[in-house]
Protein 1
Amino acid sequence: MVKVKPFAAVRPPKALAQEVASRPYDVLNSKEAKAEAGEKSLLHIIKPEIDFDPIADEHSQQVYDKAVENFRLWQEKGWLVQDSKEMYYVYAQTMEGRTQYGLVVGANVEDYLTGKIKKHELTRKDKEEDRMIHVRIQNANVEPVFFAYPDNDEINGIVSDIVKNLPEYDYIAEDGFGHKFWIIDNDSTIKRITEIFASVPAFYVADGHHRTAAAALVGEEKRKSNPNHTGEEEYNYFLAVVFPESHLKIIDYNRVVKDLNGMTSADFIKKLNEDFVVENMGTDIYKPAALHNFSMYINGSWYSLTAKPGTYDEKDPVGVLDVTVMSNLVFDKLLDIKDLRTSKRIDFIGGIRGLGELKKRVDSGEMAAAFALYPVSMRQLIDIADTGNIMPPKTTWFEPKLRSGLAIHKLS
């Protein structure tokens, strides 16, 4: 069963929330972040290389020093202020008419280390270490991680009651997504939320595997270096927004390839017929209609590809995934792309950009073909995490992304 705690968030005053909060560090490159960052934007803290001209190396000591300086400065100027008591918070996001309501909590380091916070992706040590540096230098979790948990009626009821009140923050970001934020300051409600989560069996990392690993590992470091460690210190917890699984929707994560491994497009399509039912759908964008149905764009035409029975294993939670089917039958077998993490011949496009982006990349001549996949379900993600399996790279895309800066968690 998972353990959570309330915390005294460092956050913007009501009037500054939209100015301070930013998109996460990993959805913008440095150039995009520099263009997007207003004077008070958290991007100056999470991507401080943008404060140098020209933009500095994000892994340089001067950039780390700048991150610390900016975090201190934002607090001195009153752009970020710490709450006077430990609380929980509700964070709601609205996209295309659908709203998901999450609780902002301190998640437990020990739960991650013992596997109660379950992951479905492999992490890379270099990326973990980079994120750990940021947690260490700030002595804070500046950006949240994004978890799912099995629906709980009582928690849903508490959140429903909270959101009947006026929110602390309420704005629509430049991408059109709505963000609302409420404070839970009633002591008995806070106590009850902590108690209910003690009966929730697990959290599932939805988005932010590297940030989760980094936050937990820094917590573990602090524990080992403290001879008077009790387990109650603030560093035993890290910043998470946790959503009931029914609220979350995974969108498609698509692929484009640079070449056809020496084949003509006609030869390639002929080869595809061995494992797929291939139909030419013409020039109008074709979106995959169901599991094991894919769309392909090549030479100005869209195709429906339906995997033939027997080409995948229905009993294997990973083998049945469309990303596995596509990797095995197309990228490995036909295109000789063995490792999706390292190959320079393949690129990935989040479904938020639409299938038109796939067409654009191929029509420009940059890519030879594009493949769209039917999205993974939350149930598939949970089944994989529960069985201790790992999804192939670039399987899930969650949208909207959490805004960074609406709540920051200090480790002491």
Note: Residues 209-225 form the longest helix (17 residues).
Protein 2
Amino acid sequence: MSTVLPTPRFTDPRDAPILRWGILAPGEIANDFVDSLVRHTDQRVVAVGSRSLERAQDFATRHGIDRAHGSYDDLVADPEVDVIYVASPHSLHEEHALLAIAAGKHVLVEKPIAPTPAAARRIVDAARAAGVFAMEAMWTRYRPQSDVVRQAIDSGLLGELRLVTADFGGVAPLDPGSRIYDPRLAGGALLDLGVYVAAWATFVLGDDLEVSARGRLAPTGVDAHAALLLSSPTDAQALVTASVDAKTPVRSMIAGERGRLEVSSPFWDADGIAFYDAEGTLVDEWTDTFERPARQSLCYQAAALARYVDAGLTESPLHGLDETVRVIEMLDDARRQIGGVEPGSPA
């Protein structure tokens, strides 16, 4: 049992108020999201919408959902839906988030919230004008491990922060027409994996970070690898990398004057955190025992959203909309420094 590291809060997703969910775009991530809600929460998934009624019906049958809609317009117009989970490819997030917001629905938008800062700001502005709740589905922010890290930082356990690191890299076969490599689909490592490492940096150091980036491009002109040096006003720095052409350890670390935290791999789905003192001696370890591994823990973000809506909030206190937009700005700044093509450009 952990004796120095804190105990995570909000570990039971079933204690959240119940909302009625509609699923926009029944793909792989939507399948896992609904499965996690059914297994671990009392949230109600009441409708699903697709451009294909047959596809929506198939998804509804698999998950026991009452209503299937053959268009996104019909889904967001469903009066029995409180919140829309936007699970379409990120190149379509703006269109679909704005559609749901215009219908007066709360939205949980898969990450990245949008491929460009301008598109992200339009979503945020629309949600604020409509008075609906909007949140990017940065699911790692709501997992128990993140609350352990948050409390450890806020308590001063690490002292003044000095260095943050994170890497996320894998090898995606070169397919010019895939969402990873096609600029028309907002491809590239930064928008696919970089959002995780950039959000880790802002989680720890805040979003007032200066960006310096280097990388390499894929033959299609999108970034295949990016290394970012992020500098804060307090002189703490983050070194983060994202790659779609090299497998990396997928670890993260926070070092301060009094010690460091090391998060086990993969850091976005970690089940362990180790705390070392300033001399490098292992002092304590925390292990996740809640048995919601990998995408089974998507339930935590849904439960958090339900709590926030019930409290009358319109954005997440753990991952606010201004920070969400700032992460997209950082990724876009890095893309420009690397020389990658603009998202949405012709291949």
Note: The radius of gyration is 20 Å.
